[in-house]
Amino acid sequence: MKTASSLRLSRTAQQRISQTCPYELRVFRSGIHRLGVRTRESIPGGRRVIEYGGEKINRVETRRRFLHGSPGRSRKLNYLAQLDLYWTIDGAVDGTGAELINHSCEPNLKLRKFRGHLWLFSVRRIRPGEELGYDYGFSETGRRVRCRCGSAKCRGTINRT
Q1: What's 139's domain CATH number?
Q2: Are 135 and 104 in contact (CB under 8 A)?
Q3: Which residue has the higher pLDDT, 8 or 134?
């Protein structure tokens, strides 16, 4: 059952996705984790799909938000994506909606750094109705995070192995 806050989040994220993405994507209640994103049209392989946008923060602020949460968010929900050794993008603050794309051990997207930005590119043709996912690649030395992607190639953890 959707809560009022998740309904607001999904409406807001849907608006941001519609404004920033050339493909028709939809936010929906995902079986993987909370909300997810699926495409309503075919996306060819090798295409730039959506920018992982948000507030650009330094490593001191990144550590603080990792430990205590982003402004107005629970510490349990982390939307931090590392741009380089100094900068991180916090998708929880002014994100593009890409922060709702879930992890997958058998991804159809790949996160790439491109001209100072983080972009999600399609790694193969993505069919209409397919949930979007990319490998978060959490540190192999960090706390283990259980994976719920359900793919045949699931490694059981979001962490690199």
Answers
A1: 2.170.270.10
A2: yes
A3: 134
